[in-house]
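To: structure subgroup
Subject: Chain for Friday's discussion

All,

I'm putting the inputs and outputs inline so they're searchable in the archive.
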Amino acid sequence: MNKRLTKIELAKQKMSFSAGHFTIFSESDRENLHGHNYAVFVMFEAEVGDNGMTADYNVYKDAVMDCCQLIDEVVLLPTESPYLEIEETETYVYAYFNKRSEKMQFLKRDVKLLPVRNITVEELSYWFLNKLIPMAKDNQDHPIHSIEVKIFSGQGQSGSSTWSKNA
């Protein structure tokens, strides 16, 4: 018998973070450093169990909030950008841009390096999604069929990434 599917949406006030960043447009063009108050939205498509519920989605909500806390109140820098070179010392993080003609210095405690190509809503949604996929794959008791993560950098402005177990 096929299980009935439902969608669970999570968009709690605590699923948010504030971070500084700059978008890199090309090897010589970038935004000025600025910040956003980001909000995270997650939607799961899952099977409804015999008990009328999908899963304890507090586990996923807590994982999203942990990720938010990890990148809250810092400057985010992409480690996978072909246009940004990053060097770390014990105290500082240096970001070199525009063929090293621009050198930005940050205290190490004020920076979080993310394995993404750019600090955009598209890449941030993918980073969050990759934190949730292993949890969904390991959850055999309550199968998750798909996940969508949407990151808002302001009202009406977002980017999303999706995963499906059938893809």
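Points worth raising on Friday:
The first strand starts at residue 5 and ends at 10.
The mean pLDDT is 93.

D.
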